[in-house]
Specification:
two-stranded antiparallel sheet, 43% helix, alpha+beta
Length: 111
Amino acid sequence: MRLDCSADQGGIEVAHHYAGPGARAVLDLAYRVARVVEEESGLTGHDFEVDQPTLTGDPRRAAARLGGVSDWVRRELVRASRADGCPIHLVENSNALGYGRPETACSDPCD
């Protein structure tokens, strides 16, 4: 999870590699952090993925969305990696999706 905050705006990003109970745990934490930011800054938070305010919204709804997207990303990236013959490795914080094709992780370097 990543929190960016300035005087008049902020954002929380969560990598797309959480599903099931992991998605629920990370979104519970993200919503708690969002609520603290709202209380301390006076800003209003909104989860645009599920179109609900973070102050009164349901983290379970957000977790279901995150889990579905994470499952799709894993399924599609694995299928794509099999098609080009180069495995895709899960890499923490490698990019917004949390996935990457690092040459150091491949025994046979990827293009």
